């Protein structure tokens, strides 16, 4: 494996008392902080490897008057990917350092790592608006998963045909593209597939833990209070066979059926990315074609919670995949800086506003406030179902257009970008940045809330306790996980000078 060699910036091109390629100035060589005769200098230091090395680092200093102005520029060489494959390790990781007392501009500390796996797969900054929407959807899912919860009157499904589930899946496609697209580009197909597989395995593990925890909690609650579970009852009565159906994802109990959909969609993300890389329009057309066929021909997967009941997946993956693909396309448009995202046409934005407000007015949900919406409210709405399908399971076109309009309005609005930076919304953004653990905790707390509502009288006090404890726990978990991530960020150990620009230990 070629070893990178580093040299230190010298005032000019001729030798000055030491070897040009030495790791530091030789004895007797003038200091790099001394001002040369012409007042300017420029030099380049590059790690030597196959076809240009991992990355080049260029340090330039100009206009040395009262202090030294130094800027560190990072550039990716043409041989980046091939060098990584040859074992040079991951691309340099750079962290900003403070200016020194002599006037140094912020520098970076570059490190040639040991692993080809990136520490952070995304190469572009996160959009706070996406984290805000994800956080709101997670909090809404928790509230909506507790029947008779009075806070369900102010969650997302009250303001349009769609609800938090559609928003969550669409943003899952956006986040998957943001997280894994650069991995495929920089480290190749094998590393990208490995990262996606490990993530799917992680989510599957969370699903199994949630399923086992639900089994135990519901079983113990039934023994203690004499209740009988309608949702988990058939699987509990079947014992280990029911548990095996759940672990194999052949049985998806209500409230535990979102993660299996996410696993399936994330597993096909490499195929979606392959199609989008060749033809965005063709991939979108194929996705909508599959969506239409699923609605017209009633395609779905079986859900064997109760062997006597011929049920299917509540979140039909053949229909819900269109939301995931739309999220991927939106992420690509944002990453490329296309005008449809960066400078949205006013006519398109106005059309989205008209449709979103129209959905709210047609829904008439406010007429039922403060009573929670009845369970059959959506299926009986005449505009929401097509081909006789359940509107949410098959994502009726009205729901699809509604969530697309809402997301487009938010993600193209500079005002929403400013709102997302409000300090008071920081806990919500933290939930959005840590969606999987927050969602898992929300499932457990929602289950406890449902059991409490079934065994105790649903009074104002019970409502306040269940919602305050549950929502408070989710927000606290998001902040704690954010703090843990921040504590793992490498801290600079000292000030940097041009002599210090070399691989970190």
Task: List the defining traits of the structure above.
mainly alpha; 2 domains; 6% strand; disordered N terminus; 7 strands; 505 residues; two-stranded antiparallel sheet
Could you walk me through the main structural features you see in this protein, from its secondary elements to its overall organization?
- The chain is mostly helical.
- The protein has two domains: 16-116, no CATH class; 128-487, no CATH class.
- Helix content is 51%, strand content 6%.
- It has 16 helices and seven strands.
- The protein has helices at 80-88, 128-144, 164-225, 233-237, 240-247, 258-267, 269-278, 280-297, 317-336, 339-342, 346-363, 397-411, 414-419, 426-433, 435-455, 460-487, and strands spanning 41-45, 55-61, 70-76, 93-96, 108-111, 302-303, 311-312.
- A three-stranded antiparallel beta sheet has the order 1-2-3, with no helix packed on it. A two-stranded antiparallel sheet has the order 4-5. Strands 6-7 form a two-stranded antiparallel sheet.
- Helix 15 runs antiparallel to helix 16.
